[in-house]
Amino acid sequence: MAEALVAGAFLSGFINVVFDRLISSEFVNLVVGKKLNRQLVERLQTALLAAKALVADAEQKQFGNELVRKWLDSLKDDLYTADDLLDRVLIRAEIRKKVRIRLPRFLNLYNRKMATKIEDVVKRIEDLEKRKDSLGLKEIPTGSSSWRPPSTSLVKGNVFGRDADQQALIKMLNDNNHHNLSVISIVGMGGVGKTTLAQCLYNNKNLMDGVDLKAWICVSENFDVVETTKNVIKGISSGVCSLDSFDLLQQDLKEKLSKKKFFIVLDDVWSEDADKWNSFIVPFQHGRKGSTILLTTRKENVGPTVQNYSSYSLKGLSNDYCWSIFAYNASFPESNGSSELEGIGRKIVERCDGLPLAAETLGRLLRSKHDAGEWNKILSSDIWQFSMTDSKIVPALLISYYHLPAHLKRCFVYCSLYPKDYKLDKDELILLWMAEDLLQPPRRGQTLEEVGCECFDGLVSRLFFKQVENEFEKYFVMHDLMHDLATFLAGDLYCRFGEIEKMSILTRHLSYNHSISEKTCSSSKIESLRTLLYINDVSSIGKAPATLPRDILSKNKYLRVLSFGRLDIFPDSIDKLIHLRYLNLSWSNIEVLPESLCKLYNLQTLKLEDCSQLTMLPSGMYNLVNLRHLDIRDTPLKEMPKGMGKLKQLHILSKFVVGKQEDNGMEELGGLLNLHGSLEIEKLENVVDANEKQVMIWFQTHILMNKIYLGACNHTLA
User: Fold this and answer.
1) Buried residues in 591-623 as b, exposed as e (16+ CB within 10 A)
2) Which residue of 88, 445, 461, 716 is 20 to 30 Å from 318, comparing CA positions?
């Protein structure tokens, strides 16, 4: 494994979040105002920086060292605790400011208790840093080394199941023969066989007939324009290139390629930097017609900005072809062709989910093992239990993960809360990422929702999510092995209750699809949850709605995300959850929401879809000043509560039920300038005031400017 990571460790991103909170202007004001001890805050800053220096090394060594993995788990736990405490300090300070409560310093016992808790977590992080020598942890720089050896143009072993792909690419190449330069990308996830397919094309004698120059360049993660240009020259000049100046290199390459037909393979390309590509591509535009650059990449957006660019998406193999690869590498049936082993082997191949690299690796692993017990052990064990020396499945996937920016790593790992093959809802996932504070701050003029959309699209373009489209619907899912990777990286901090019945004391994020018993919750001592997420998936169909223990909310005061499988009566104590950003009560039987709900000043998302018994919202809704999404589709509200126009942050309001009073009429919509998406307006017959009619006219004339789609109105405005 390399001594450097591609884009920093997963924990580095989390440490940055906590550190940024410490140096924020709000926190500095608290220190200046002597609400917090300056020395304690500085100790925490120092401890975080010291830990951050070690996490890249620890995240690599965790795969072969259980003690290092436990060290990482402890650090994650302490970071969550520190972040919870700091968030609580800021929230309480903001609440005090709003309600103008000022307590004498000697009476403010809360600040003293909070300082003690922060001091405890600082000491724990400092103690972890002191263990670095005994664990062999050291500070390593962030770099771009790959975990695997560079590829070559030689095809190794037999190739199965790629004849149709070869023919499709040959056709693409032949169709471009009238262009001076064509660039074609083979796009696919790690281990799907992109390099093998490129090798087959590179060594195809018929395809290479008439090609004057060809070269195979393994680019990998670090796309250096000068170095890559030099390597191309070496490739077409038998390894000779003594030039260093980029200008001389480009002049030399232009001269060598001029009026020649060439075929250049750039294997394992990651860079999406258009400036680099535009600079690199210049000498290649002087070749003869039919010249080609063939890329292999895991990212859909990779590729130079040239006119004749096309891509080919490489899919996984069928189970039968994967079985052929597995059997070939396991020397089956030459070594032992028993029907028992074949039955086990075919089940193992199903776990490979179409990835030839996985089938090849597992086949090699079992080449010398002829006992059914050994094969069953592989079948029943998780692939992540293999050591790094025995398996390349883990690095094949991890290289994609480690190339992610730190914030995308956290977004990806969060998806481990969903079961395999779950149909991901893009908009819903973005709301959850927002609530969990996983997104980067928006750029000027950008919304959080737009940042979330960029993150989702980034994971799609890197093939962490795959798009499925049929005649009925279009949706996204995670590839099974990517889901395994997310689950592994999530560790004990994330738990899918129902699949895993035993929760760890470290668990911070919990999803569930059936009832959690009082006994299970109390035995696991779960008291620091951030997420309680109900997943309504296929396994829930036909079962009784899931329920939660009565006291789980009172025990978990740091919740950011809360959704229910079944709810008949809403707890009045909800106002104690001051960290809550996301609340989903959809499809519940609640008849009344308590006024205490309106004290959740940090709430961003409130989902009340199809609450068939709910006819009124709390009168204090206007206090939810951070509310961005209010979903009340198919909920039979009689009218909106007063003062909805004060919710200036609202981006999505699914429906507005016009009331008869001055403070809940159509005029309230006039202040909601940030609305996007679709808006349904009900009870327009209640619009009688001239000002309200003007607002309606304004909506009708400015609808497109505000990106609002005006949905069904149940009454025509006279």
Assistant:
1) eebbebbbbbbbbbbbbbeebeebeebbeebbb
2) 461
DSSP state letters, 245-261: -HHHHHHHHHHHHTT--
DSSP 544: P
Query: What CATH number does domain 163-313 carry, 3.30.9.100, 3.40.50.880, 1.50.40.10, 3.40.50.300?
Result: 3.40.50.300
Q: Is 259 left (phi over 0), alpha (psi -120 to 50) or beta?
A: left
**Nearest in space to 14 (alpha carbons), one of 490, 700, 713:** 490
| Higher-confidence position of 7 and 300 | 300
Q: Amino acid identity, residue 425?
A: D
Q: Which of 566, 500, 568, 512 is nearest to 539 (CA)?
A: 512
Type of residue at 216: W
For residue 147, is pLDDT > 70?
A: no
Which of the four CATH numbers 3.30.559.70, 1.10.10.10, 3.40.50.2020, 3.10.270.10 does domain 397-485 have?
1.10.10.10
Run of H or E residues at 533: strand 531-534
Contact in structure between 409 and 476 (CB atoms under 8 Å): no
Query: What is residue 697's predicted lDDT score, i.e. its pLDDT?
Result: 65
Average pLDDT over residues 312-340: 86
Structure tokens at 361: 């690796």
pTM here is 0.79
The span from the CA of 91 to the CA of 560, in Å, is 13
Q: What is the pLDDT of residues 437-489, one digit of tens each?
A: 999 989 998 999 999 999 999 998 888 888 887 767 788 998 877 888 888 88
| 406 contacts: CB under 8 Å, gap ≥ 6 | 7, 8, 9, 10, 12, 13, 16
CB 182 within 8 A of CB 176: yes
